[in-house]
Amino acid sequence: QVQLAESGGGLVQAGGSLRLSCGASGGTLNNYVMGWFRQAPGKERECVAAISSRGGSTFYVDSVKGRFTISKDSVSVNLQMNSLKPEDTAVYYCAARPIISYSYYTRRSAYDYWGQGTQVTVSS
Fold it and tell me: pLDDT for 14-41, tens place per residue?
């Protein structure tokens, strides 16, 4: 059993930065593949970043490459978001899959645990 909780969302102007963090209560994330998803109104929930359990492999959706950085340690996964754009506005969710893997996952169905989400709003 893993409880995930996101933090760090908020309102920021275009070009600004935010750092999201997702902490695990009740266990460590050493053996978890982690992902960050976002969902904007009227749009499908999409994977924006993912990281292997040991942190050696990462994924970024094309729209955030060069701007977002995912990282993890034993107790949290983080998403540093720079040069934010209005189109980044969404609810951001962290997700976890309990597996030791050198790879990552981008499908929603691959993840077992989810946080409640944190709102990120980027104004123009």
Answer: 999 999 999 988 778 999 999 999 999 9
Higher pLDDT, 26 or 47: 47
Q: Residue 42 has what DSSP assignment?
A: T
Residue 109's SS3 state is helix
First to last CA, the chain: 40
CA-CA distance, 122 to 90, in Å (whole number)?
9
User: What does each C-alpha distance from 90 to 37, 106, 120 come to in angstroms?
Assistant: 9, 17, 6
Give the residues across from 57 on adjacent strands: none
DSSP letter at 96 equals E
The structure tokens 């189109």 sit at 87
**Per residue in 100-115, pLDDT tens?**
999 999 999 999 999 9
- Would you say 74 and 29 are in contact if contact means Cβ atoms under 8 Å apart? yes
